Amino acid sequence: MPAMRRSYLFVPGNRPERIAKALAAGPDAVIVDLEDAVPPDEKCAARAAALAALAALPAAGPPVLLRINTVRSRLGLADLLAAVALMERAPHALAGLMLPKAMPEDIALTGDVMDEAGIAGEIGALIETAAGLEEAARAARASPRLSFLMFGGADLALDLGVQLQWDPLVNARARLVQACGAARKPAVDMPWVRLDDFAGESAEMARSFALGFTARAAIHPRQIPAIHAALMPTPDEIAQARRVIDAFTAASERACLLDGRLVERPLVEGCRRILARARPV
Questions:
Q1: Does the residue 75 lie in any domain?
Q2: Domain of residue 266, residue span
Q3: Could you report the per-residue pLDDT of 146-178, keeping only the tens digit for each?
């Protein structure tokens, strides 16, 4: 199993000078944000500045995605076409696009436009409305380019009329994880927004990863090491995962016993995921 992304670091699209700093912070991916991070009267200028900065990036480094405005708007359609044009002339500049308040039709349309242009690239989708949550299972299968769904808790809390806290949103989180699990897609949790509350951040990450999220977004470079550390298996977990896989392989990939415990394929696949988390992207 290949290494899995653990972290996605957001950068405001109207601060293109921060993109290189974000890449240097060590995230597994960077998301340049043209949507919520940019005031309405700066969006067109931010698009031009962000795309120019992306075109000038070296080919090496973590993948970069561009969070565009909703494709159900003229602004978002302009973002989409400009981003696709950049990917046509500078394929290294962008790994893909991220869609806000995503519905399955948004994902399918974006994939169709990328297909028509004949470009490579992935799509990430933010599920951050009640309507989007209802359609999360379809969204996870809306395009072969869809690489992950991200939980957008702030907008969803507003939509549901609840506080941006763990308990009111735990059911919504679980539904997103279930949709991703059924489609075999990674589920990415929202960033922790109270930057001075380290204990709260640590506690929520533990709950999030126990629930089934495999990665987390971040809004500050200093959050990246904590995310990676929280997802890193212990040496004992790594050693035991290898023992399980070795026993299963020695048994010609048939059910067997190890230390009195039944070893069969679901356990082995879980061990392979442990080893994938142990390999940095």
A1: yes
A2: 235-277
A3: 999 999 999 999 999 999 999 999 999 999 999
Place of tokens 């708007």: 73
pLDDT at 280 over 50: yes
State pTM to two decimals: 0.91
DSSP label at residue 255: -
Q: Please give the torsion angle defined by the CA atoms of residues 2, 8, 14 and 17, in that order, rounded to the nearest 10 degrees.
A: -70
Rounded Cα distance between 274 and 4, Å, is 10
Q: Tokens 């806290």, residue?
A: 165
> Residue 3: its pLDDT value, please?
57
- Span 67-121, pLDDT tens digits: 999 999 999 999 999 999 999 999 999 999 999 999 999 999 999 999 999 999 9
Residue 41, phi then psi, degrees to nearest 5: -80, 0
Which of 7, 3, 4 has its CA nearest to residue 208? Answer: 7
Q: How far apart are CA 210 and CA 195, in angstroms?
A: 22
| Residue at 59: amino acid letter | A
Beta-bridged to residue 146, according to DSSP, are 123
Amino acid occupying residue 128: E
What string of DSSP letters covers 77-126?
A: HHHHHHHHHHHHH-TTS-SEEEETT--HHHHHHHHHHHHHHT---EEEEE
248 and 192 fall within a common domain = no
Q: How many domains does the chain have?
A: 2
> What is the token pair recorded at 230?
């929280």
Tokens of 233: 């298996």
Beta-bridge mates of residue 188: 150, 215
